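Late entry, written up from scratch paper. The run itself happened at the end of the previous shift, but nothing got recorded in the book at the time, so transcribing now.
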Amino acid sequence: MTRRVVVTGMGIVSPIGNDIASFSRALQSGRHGIGPITCFDTTEYKATLCAAVKNFNPRDYMENAEILRSDPAARFAMAAACQAVEDSGIMGTLPPDRIGVYFGTGIGGIQTFAAEMDKLRAKGPRRVSPYFVPMMIANMASGMIAIRFNCRGAALATVTACASGSNAIGEALRAIRHGYCDAVIAGGAEAAVSECSVAGFINMQALSVSSDPDAASLPFDSRRTGFVIGEGAGALVLEEYEHALGRGAAIYGEVCGYGSSCDAFHITAPHPEGLGAVDAMKAALEEAGFTADTRLYINAHGTGTPLNDAMETRAIKTVLGAEKAVQTPVSSTKSMTGHMLGASGAAEAIASLLALRDGILPPTVGLLSPDPECDLDYVPLTARKAEIDLALSNSLGFGGHNACLAFRKV
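Output as recorded:
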């Protein structure tokens, strides 16, 4: 018998809120978190906007010594995980070796890497921090979270670019389903608003060059020119259903489907017809028991890049058929959060679960001039009340990595 998996805790650090309540309010009010980059001089940069985390104090979650020995991405991860664990009440209900940590990141400790390279060039090799390597490596968030909560099951890092957070959640689902764990702290984190990474994204023509925060992150709009780089972390506690039921845990929803695929096409460009995205969505929907009368909502990858949005639209039509596709609400929360890279899948999984719980679909803000190639119902401008049976969350990453998660009410 297949074990069911539910979400019993959630936590978030994001450009629009640093806890679930504030994140939910921002989504429902259509408030974006985009503004000027202030952490470095952007005089010579074509892109000058980001979606930064605001008013975040790592001391709320970590001791000073731990803060000094960790990259900002790991700090965001720890904060989101602490929130999710407290929300779930999971600790003390299972043996430590039955709880795992699966946490993704696209880039890892890039701020640490850049700072230590500057130090190396300016002051020589003896001045490089002895904590440089553990601060930089991509698995450190999962390791630190496991240490904090004494999780002695597998502690893994998924690194699949923009799909990292979704892959972490999907692989955690499989680990619980097949009996390797009874609960997993899963999610993704990123802190890549830095000189080098922003320059790299600009030079590959991926970032929006708008100077207007209200017209920069424009998924599915004809004016879109690229994504706005964001940061933060999202964490979910996944738990075996009978165990959650037995301890009286509050349940946000069931993780009922997961698809993972690769375009095998190009290192950055998506397949024009979205073949990998189609495969991932089909797999998640089939696993979730999707039928023609299912009331579906799709939280799109929706980056605001010309290629992604048109491709994702075509992929949705291929999967659902033209008639069902035009009846299905689709929205991109990246219009508010920017692109949180490796954290985006986790944040969007949370947004999807909140839509299921509250019956309010988050909008695609800024969508004033729809692209003719993007002709679905993107919930433009304002949130919408709608009862849904199933929420699908798409994440499509560089390298052709695709992950799709399906959630339903219990």
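The mean pLDDT is 97.
(Scratch paper discarded after transcription.)
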